[in-house]
Amino acid sequence: MLKTLHVYHYLKMIKKQIKEGKFVLGTWCDLPSPSVVNVIAKAGLDFIIIDMEHGPMDYKVAQEMIMAAESEDCEAIIRVPRNDESDILRALDVGATGIIVPHIKNVDDRKKFISYSKFSPIGNRGFNPYIRAGSYHSVDQDYFYEQNNKILLVIIIEGVNGLKELDDIISNPEIDVVYIGTYDLSVALGVPGDVKNKKVIDALKDAVVKIRSKGKSAGCMIHNVDDLKMFKEMGIQFITYKVDTAIIYESFKKMKVALEKNKNDH
C-alpha cells in the first residue's frame, strides 16, 4: 500500500464502487455543521456533498465537516462555487476526496476543471504537502500518482447548452460522474421547478444513455423511494437524497402538522 493512502484507506472509495457498477447514496449538506455531517454519516451514507456554491460554509468548517464524515467511513465531496483554480485547489487541500464543479457548458470548461484538479502530467494542480491532503509532511512521488487516481471528478450539467455539448464534454477519461441538475434544467426547459415534467425526464433519460455509453456514471437527486427505483432503472448510480436542511425541516414539519391535527380531533 502506498504510504500516502493512510488518510483514506478506511473510506468506502465510491470512485471504485461506481466503476464496478455499484450504486452509491449521499446527500447535500447546506448546513455548516460538522455535527450534522457526523449524524448523517453515522446513518451509513456513502458520501456527503459539502455545498460551497449555495451553503454558507468556509474552508475551515468544510475541513471539519470532512473529518466528521471520514470518522464514520463516509466520503466528503465539495461542490465548489465556480470553476476556479483557487476554489478547487483549496477544496482539495482540506482533504475532499472529490470535487463537483457547477455550470459546465462546453469542452473548455471541462479542460479547465481537469487542469485545476490533477497534478502533472495530467493537469496543473498546485502543490503544498503541509496541509491535510498531504498529511502535513513531505511526500514522495507516489503521492502525486495516488492523488490523481483517488480524486473523484464530477461535473454538473444543468443547462441546454451543456446537454447539446454533452458528448464532447464527457469524452475525457478523467471525468468520473456527470450529475444532471434537474432543478436548473427545469428552468432551462421552460418548466421551472417541475422536475417531474416529461421534458425534464426525457432530457434526463437521453443524457444518461450518453453518459453511460462513454463509461461514466450518471448522478441525480431523489426525493423518495419511488424516485430511487425509477432512477436506478434509468441507470443512475450516483444518487443524492435531498438536502440536509430539507430533511430536517420536513421531519419536524410533518410531526407538527400531526400534532395540530390531533388537537383538532379532540
Describe this protein's structure.
With 266 residues, the protein is α/β, with parallel strands linked by helices. It is built from 12 helices and 8 strands. The protein has one domain: TIM Barrel (Alpha-Beta Barrel), CATH 3.20.20.60. α3 links the parallel β2 and β3. It is globular and about 70 Å long.
Instruction: Output the structural class.
Output: alpha/beta
| Model regions low in confidence, pLDDT < 50 over at least 5 residues | 1-10
Q: What is the CATH superfamily?
A: Phosphoenolpyruvate-binding domains
What does the average pLDDT come to? 93
Strand residue percentage = 15-25%
Q: Which bin fits the share of residues in helices?
A: 40-55%
Counting DSSP E segments of at least 2 residues, the number of strands comes to 8
What distance separates the N and C termini?
A: 66 Å
Tell me the Rg in angstroms.
19 Å
H/E element sequence? HEHEHEHEHHEHHEHHEHEH
Largest β-sheet summary: 8 strands, parallel, barrel
Order of strands across the widest beta sheet? 1-2-3-4-5-6-7-8
CATH architecture assignment: Alpha-Beta Barrel
CATH class category name: Alpha Beta
Shape designation: globular
Determine the CATH topology: TIM Barrel
Number of folding domains? 1
Q: Determine the number of helices (DSSP H or I, runs of at least 4 residues).
A: 12
What keywords describe this structure?
TIM Barrel; disordered N terminus; alpha/beta; 8-stranded parallel β-barrel; 266 residues; globular
